[in-house]
Design goal:
With 314 residues, the chain is α/β, with parallel strands linked by helices. It contains 10 helices and 8 strands. Helix 2 crosses helix 5, helix 5 packs antiparallel against helix 6 and helix 6 packs parallel to helix 10. The chain binds zinc ion (ZN).
Length: 314
């Protein structure tokens, strides 16, 4: 009887192991498509760009969802597994993914194909960090012309690994670059609506310096380059003085940064007898909801420039 029971238990155990095995197989075929280039991208911004170039010739997984702050994001065990299985990992670099540096290093040691999109940019065109000596501002995507260089860099990387689809990747890239050229002109024409003295952008963290440099805005972030450093009371005080003195009509919150600091800044400005509006929400380090216009890079950039200009025109 005891023997029969233990045989039954062993059979049940083996069956469940088999079932679990099947389940994990199914899982991996969902994630890994052997006919296509399997790519893992870190941020939604990089993901959207890679998708525009790779189209249906790639199988893409994006680690960070919309609204996720890449400075603070820590890779899960599942993420590490995805990165290890992928043919190519594409990330921003310049320490944007501040908590993932060790993982990237490990992957590079094991000869995994990794590509930092910022590598394509001439260091002369990068903005040096005031806070961290010897390092650069990672928020390169809001200068559309710099991002066009990134698009070329991603295309070359895909062609290197998958030369059979060279024509396909090249055609997609050409088409997309044309759209980005139009986008760049759109930003310039909206900016022209603002008198120069009104081109001052105040946001939650320093994500818009490349935008400011490219389109002629003075830019100030309450928090620094990384949201990992909290804004101090002195930062709030200095910025509140600046806003009240310059009579800046609007400041902007960011979708991937909690708004409490900007609310505190608004109050501090009001205590200086000047009223500043929250001009709306900008997308900084993450795109909006997938399936909406703001779920794409182009839609996000348009949303931002429209929000900024409309807010500052008041
Ligand atoms: Zn940032």
């Amino acid at each position: 009887m005891v023997k029969k029971l233990s045989i039954m238990i062993i059979t049940i155990l083996m069956l469940s192991i088999l079932l679990i095995g099947c389940d994990s197989n199914r899982q991996s075929t969902q994630e890994i498509d052997n006919d296509k280039l399997n790519i893992v991208a870190t941020t939604t911004i990089i993901g959207d760009t890679v998708r525009k170039i790779g189209g249906d010739k790639i199988n893409l997984q994006v680690l960070m969802g919309p609204g996720i702050d890449p400075h603070l994001y820590k890779a899960s065990a599942g993420d590490v597994n995805k990165m290890q299985k992928a043919d190519l990992l594409i990330y921003n670099g310049l320490h944007l993914e501040g908590k993932m540096g060790d993982i990237f290093e490990q992957l590079q040691k094991t000869n995994k194909n990794t590509y930092a999109v910022a590598d394509v940019i001439d260091p002369n065109n990068l903005i040096e960090s005031e806070e961290f000596a010897g390092s650069y501002d990672p928020h390169i995507w809001f200068d559309v012309q710099l991002w066009m260089e990134v698009v070329e860099g991603i295309k070359d990387t895909l062609i290197n690994i998958d030369p059979g689809n060279k024509d396909y990747y090249s055609e997609n890239t050409l088409r997309y670059l044309k759209e980005l050229e139009d986008l760049n002109n759109y930003i310039k024409s909206r900016t022209d609506e603002l008198p120069e003295a009104k081109r001052v952008l105040i946001t939650a963290h320093d994500a818009f310096s490349y935008f400011g440099k490219a389109y002629g805005f003075q830019v100030k972030g309450l928090q620094g380059l990384s949201t990992a450093t909290e804004a101090g009371t002195a930062d709030v005080r200095d910025l509140a003085d600046f806003i009240a003195t310059r009579e800046i009509p609007a400041i902007f919150i960011e979708s991937s940064v909690p708004s409490k600091n900007m609310e505190a800044l608004k109050k501090a400005v009001e205590s200086r007898n000047f009223s500043v509006e929250i001009g709306g929400e900008l997308f900084s380090d993450s795109l909006g909801t997938p399936g909406t216009e703001e779920g794409t890079y182009i839609g996000t950039v348009k949303h931002n420039i429209n929000t900024i200009v409309d807010g500052l025109l008041q």
